[in-house]
Specification:
By secondary structure, the chain is of the alpha+beta class. Helix content is 43%, strand content 13%. Helix 6 packs antiparallel against helix 7.
């Protein structure tokens, strides 16, 4: 869709000359041309500012989409109406445009009408973009949601008992929850009135203003016009006042983590594109696919030749703690319910609600998955969002970017259960960091204690402190398995890690583009 910005005659002619077209392009041009011609307005006898426009339209064989003699501009103060806003389309596009009309209910601060039309493309089924819309959890009838799952509960259990494949079990569970979601949980529909500050008072004022505009268009008298001016000013003043009051009330009552909502309200919704990315040969890459290859090469090294003796110490490995219901409950209920949706299209809020109703089914499925070291193939498909790190000097280097991985929520539950199992191993090995009530502070207290003991013995203590974060900026996966075996880690955990890392597939998303799924061999993974 092309847009010509300047209304002056010589500027329109110059801008039209810039529009590069070919016969295969499907093009729509919509603009306030400020041109008067009998082609779109029968009341015009002398054409004004149309010579360059008509010449260009005839040269490229474009069609006018406007319905003739429908005014698109109303100068309320001078009581003048005209057709200034024009819609043109190429020959191969005009048949796809239907239902061109003026939106009588739209109220703006301008004298131009809002133009609407529908573009219908053959053999293309349009659906809502799930990446841009989240569930409207505030309007869910959770009682009906629970009752429906409760009715399905016995049927699901019987079906689960007949299914022998772990993959089929988890897919069936996902299918049951998704079908319930479709019935009772709906996506948010974003529109002009999808604002936290929008209220019933504004709705009534909007309806009143629309009604007064329709009355004025029928009678065209001064009294009706005066009422429009008064109502329009009141409507837009009310919007400003209500927005201001809402913001002040929010700031006065904000508590704890809600302060981050302020950042959400004020941050820019747009980010800069990644202009140039430097590969390992110091070559600058511009194209999206080339950038993807550069990031993938930086994230995953080629296979390293490390010999692993998997028979070593396996018989003496640490016992794998049994999966109990409390671990599954903790993994589900202590997950952030506002996580971004991925391929399973289920948020933690929905999973947490379903768990309350069919917890027995969740417990059976996750116990089987973890105890049999099984990790579903679709859970190994990741979407990685690439974002800039702040305050970096050179953004052509791949390590100046951070990666946000979107995993599906049922997968995250399995990973949290494994994390609980790892904490059990950490207890046995007396690890201090990343454990509840065993932070780095404990290590510092131990150091202070040792220093005091050495001082009492009148000896000298030498303490070397190293920041090894940048030294160990990656993990060699084969080496990881070798170390786990050496530490006598449970066979179950080692097998789960192998399955978790095998046959992973990722797609990269940045610059408003998305790479198709790319299979990766995880031999060495870097942390950016």
């Amino acid at each position: 869709m092309q847009h010509i910005f300047d209304r002056q005659l010589y500027m329109i002619e110059r801008e039209l000359a810039k529009v590069m077209l070919n016969s295969e392009q499907k093009v729509i041009i919509v603009e306030d041309f400020n041109a008067h011609h009998s082609w779109w307005n029968a009341k015009i006898s002398n054409s004004i500012r149309t010579k360059a426009l008509i010449k260009w339209v005839n040269l490229h064989k474009y069609d006018l989409i406007n319905t003739s003699d429908i005014d698109t501009y109303h100068n309320y103060s001078d009581q003048l109406n005209s057709v200034l806003d024009l819609t043109f389309a190429s020959k191969n596009m005009c048949n796809h445009i239907k239902n061109w009309h003026i939106d009588e209910n739209a109220n703006t601060e301008f004298n131009h009408e809002v133009i609407l039309f529908t573009i219908v493309m053959k053999k293309v089924k349009l659906v809502e973009n799930s990446l841009n819309a989240s569930y409207n959890l505030q309007k869910v009838n959770w009682k009906d949601f629970d009752e429906h799952l409760q009715k399905m509960k016995d049927k699901i259990i019987v079906k689960m008992q007949r299914i022998t494949s772990l993959k089929a079990k988890i897919i069936y569970l996902m299918k049951c929850i998704k079908n319930t979601v479709k019935l009772f949980v709906f996506k948010q529909r974003i529109c002009a009135k999808s604002k936290l500050w929008w209220n019933n008072k504004l709705i009534e004022m909007w309806k009143t203003l629309s009604s007064k505009k329709r009355i004025w268009k029928r009678c065209r008298n001064d009294d009706a016009w005066a009422k429009i001016v008064q109502m329009r000013n009141s409507y837009h003043d009310a919007i400003k006042l209500i927005k201001n009051q809402f913001w002040i009330n929010f700031l006065n009552n904000v508590e704890e983590k809600e302060v981050f909502q302020i950042y959400k309200f004020t941050k820019s919704r747009l980010i800069e594109k990644l202009l140039l990315i430097q590969n390992s040969q110091k070559e600058l890459k511009i194209e999206f696919n080339e950038k993807c290859k550069t990031f993938l090469k930086a994230m995953y090294l080629s296979s390293l030749k490390i010999q692993i003796n998997e028979e070593l110490l396996l018989n003496e490995s640490i016992q794998w703690s049994r999966i109990i219901e409390e671990k599954i409950k903790h993994a589900i209920n202590f997950s952030a319910f506002r996580k971004a949706l991925e391929s399973d299209d289920m948020s933690f809020a929905i999973i947490q609600r379903a768990y309350k109703t069919i917890l027995k089914i969740f417990n059976l499925v996750y116990s089987d998955l973890i105890e049999n070291n099984y990790h579903l193939k679709i859970w190994r498909e990741d979407t990685k969002i690439i974002l800039k790190k702040s305050n970096k000097l050179n953004y052509s280097i791949s390590k100046t970017y951070k990666i946000i991985t979107l995993l599906n929520c049922l997968d995250k539950v399995a990973e949290k259960i494994i994390a609980v199992q790892l904490s059990y191993i950490a207890e046995i090995n007396d690890q201090m960091r990343d454990r509840k009530q065993r932070s780095v502070i404990n290590a510092v207290l131990n150091l202070v204690h040792d220093a005091q003991m050495i001082k009492s013995w009148e000896n000298t203590l030498i303490c070397l402190l190293l920041d090894v974060k940048k030294v160990f900026d990656h993990v060699v996966l084969k080496q990881l398995i070798k170390i786990l075996i050496k530490l006598k880690i449970s066979v179950n955990l080692i097998n789960w890690i192998k399955r978790f890392l095998r046959n992973r597939v990722i797609d990269l998303a940045f610059d408003d583009e998305r790479q198709k799924y790319h299979k990766i061999h995880l031999s060495c993974s870097f942390y950016f």
